[in-house]
Amino acid sequence: MRRTGSAAAVVWACLAASGAYAATEVRAEADRSEVGLPDTFVLTVRALDAPRGSQLTLPVVDGAEILSTSRGVSTSVQIGSGGPMLRQELTVTAVIRPTRVGRLTLPPAELQTPDGVVKSNSVTLTVKKTHVPGPSAARQRPDLLPGFPSPFGDGEDPFAALRDREAARPRAEGDLFLRSEVDHREVYVGEQVTLSFWIYSRVDLSRVDNVGMPKLDGFWSEDIDSPSTLNYEPRTVEGVPYRAYLLKRLALFPMKPGNRDIGPVEADITTGFLFAGHREHRVGNTLTLKVKPLPPGAPPGFVPANVGSYRVSAELSSPSAELGAPVTLRVVLEGQGNLKDVVLPRASAPGSLKLYDPTSQERISAVKGRIQGKRTQEYLVMAQQTGTFQIPALSFPYFDPELRRYETARTQTLTLSVTPGGGGATAAAPVPAAPDVPRNVLAAGALRPLRLDPRFDAHRPAWRRPLVVALALAPPMAFVLVSLAGMLSARRARGDPAAEQRRGARAARSALAAAAKLAGKGTDAVFSEQVERAVVAFLEARTGSGLTGLTRDALREALRRAGAPEAVEQRAARVLDTCDAVRFAPGAVRLARTVLLEDAEQVLEGWK
Amino acid sequence: MSALLLAVLLAQSGTSPAEARALFREGVEAYGRDDPAAAEASFRKLLEHGVGGADVNYNLGTACLAQGKLGDAVLYLERARRQGGGADVDANLAIAHGRVVDQVVGGAGEEGLLARVVAATSSDTAAMAFLVPWCAGFLLLVAGRFLRLTRTAVAGGWVLVLASVPGAALLLAHLVVHETVHEAVVIARTLPVRETPEASSKVSFELHGGTAVRLLASSGSFVRLRLPNGLEGWAEGRDLTPIDEGAAL
Lengths: 608, 249
Prior knowledge:
heterodimer, A: Immunoglobulin-like, Immunoglobulin-like, five-stranded antiparallel sheet, 31 strands, about 35% strand, B: alpha+beta, Serine Threonine Protein Phosphatase 5, Tetratricopeptide repeat, about 55% helix
């Protein structure tokens, strides 16, 4: 709005203090009484002598849509017989387009004042199906030959059809308004709709600031055009020439079906130049798009993002390659549509060819407002073995919104011939020097083959196998049993004389074995004492009576009674005599230890 | 004896050894014709008839891997590994693990010592480590009783018995882990893991086919699972298959 300056504020303050107001009056009027469905008309609501703080509200219009609104305030001072009178006028101007044919009645607008509500008159128009020339069209139509009849006749306008295709003319606040336009009102999910924001002006523009774009929830958007300078193209709206400045142009791809609203664009527009410039705020119109779901009957593998018109191709960088040398498989998708969102089919190859994850490139541009271009995926193919392999054809199902049916683009089957390579950097292991001999380089990444000779035994944990359990339990049980048996046997042998004899004889043998260890060391006395103890113990065990302290004769008698052989009797006497001599006359006897030991052994072994 | 046992098992399953071998051969031939799906069907039929073993599980896992069925591939190759394994099992299992989408990050060392030792050995190895010195030791002790061996020999027997203790401990560890630790593999392509055992609960994270998890508890159709890095949550049990054959979720 134009600023009125501080002087007016002072006058306002003075007159407001004097209370010189007239009665409030609200009037509504349209700029025409008859309007076509593709046309717009201007509704102006004026509130005269509105008290300070009043709010002028437009009515809710059924059967029409408000494209843009603007507000204004003007103040004037009238000098009359009653003295100076302050008159304030609130103005709301709306550009409205009817949405149905018939009689259109606009309800009264309301002025909210501190004292109450003041209503305007209602306005009635007739809405026709076709374009109805507006009052400005006749005013603007040039009179080519003044004074002569029109060459086109009076009732026929040769430019009417052309004007029908032109944008309808909103006349908000005269000569400057914002306008959002789409190329289609009904689209399929994923189909492109081009949204343009225009400034229509009949005055010079110097700047556009604070552009507020509407939220585009539910759309995938691509920027097509964002001019950085204010360039216009001439456009005629109902015969009135305008300069149309493109603010922004977007390609929208709706993602969900249903009615989608696109909010108004807003901007601060500076008209004029330098100090003569005025800043105006404008709000554009709201659009509603009807987004249709994709029809049923999608082919297998179809992805909902694949909407447009496409063709797909595939090629190998070389039809043959040496083993170990990489080959590039290039899959190219070209066409019109949301190329950034489409899902390309994934290439596959037989197990002998290893396909690495692809790299992707896009070259997208807008031609005549349509998003189109090329998307390329490149796979690195490494052969795992020699031979001729086929890379299966790829199919790309998509929905063509122009043909309104599903289509499938396909590639050709590709053949790759792999020959033995010369080794090189990709070889799995160092190759002996023989550079001119072709080699079959075998990588280690392939699956190991199946097993051919099966064993069908169901595996069980070790602790559930009977053999393991038996091996774990049997040895200690056997040991325990053997120990018990030994203990029982020993207990039983304790009351048996023959067993006592055998045990005594065993003890004597052990004592003699200990004496034999002393044969080469120690004194004769110690050695002979050990031998004597072993022999006496043996003889006592065999005779079953004590022999210590007996004379030699008594000893012989006892041995004889026990049934000892004669030789044993004599040897025993000789051993005991020798031992006595060593004990009682150590210096007089030269002991032959070996002989004494042999005699003692003869005693023990000679009486079985 | 094992042949007799196998014959009994096959008789119980209604499949003769010859039929089982023919089915196995069919699977191998189908795989050779580059028809891993038919091969998988043959090997699955063997398992359904109760004819298992490391070879069947390995071939089935490899056939699944060739078709990109990572969940089944990891499951059967893991079973083959636990039933004896082999270099080919380890190689294909490594390839399968390499293709699994999920990468469990961090906490690899949080596995207990017991579990790690058990994972690094087989129960057969543990049984051998236990039984060989155990039996030899007691043999010496019993022989010492009968043959009146020297004290050194008898002491050697006791040393051998003592030497069997680590093997016994390892075997016991296998037993404990086997009975208390239950592992499963994600079979579904994707498996949402939730905060609580309810279908409407918030999804904490998502798992993909082939990831091995540990099962902790169950509630209705949900099981509580834990990843090696300690991440836990609840998931539908029908999308998981226990690695131990016969174990229930």
